[in-house]
């Protein structure tokens, strides 16, 4: 799987937006400040998210972005695909020409992995990530969404299964 910064930042920004769902438009400057993501990069990502119907924009004073669909309807896979991020572990981009115009020995393995990854990400909704974030907040745990400078630190031990944020 080739999940790059583009996909990770898009998911992070969408979770940030989902946390504020129903509170009016959120500016990209606010998301940029909270998540330490470049404003110009967010503008590019949100252009793609808007074209794919995942966000709506409001112009003018008090403007910004809101979710384009219910938080329960948007999966992590939807966000990643909207920003043109391929979910592909093959070296040939699924074209089956890995090795001199024919499939390599492990092509089917990587294709199956792609399917599992996509199914997992399709099953994780923004609502799940928002709920998990709020559970941690209620327990008094530090949130990676509010402290982005600690985003890459080792997470506290937990009995919960890992869900990417």
Structure overview:
The protein is mainly alpha-helical and 165 residues long. It contains 6 helices and 2 strands. The protein has helices spanning 5-19, 28-35, 39-51, 76-82, 107-123, 126-138, and strands at residues 55-58, 64-67. It has a two-stranded antiparallel sheet with strand order 1-2.
Regions with little confidence, pLDDT below 50 for 5+ residues: 147-165
Please tell me how large the radius of gyration is: 17 Å
- The span between the termini is 17 Å
Number of helices: 6
Beta percentage is: under 5%
Structure classification = mainly alpha
**Mean pLDDT value:** 82
Count of beta strands:
2
What percent of the residues sit in helical stretches (DSSP H or I)? Answer: 40-55%
Order of helices and strands: HHHEEHHH
Topology:
Elements: H1 5-19, H2 28-35, H3 39-51, E1 55-58, E2 64-67, H4 76-82, H5 107-123, H6 126-138
Antiparallel strand pairs: 1-2
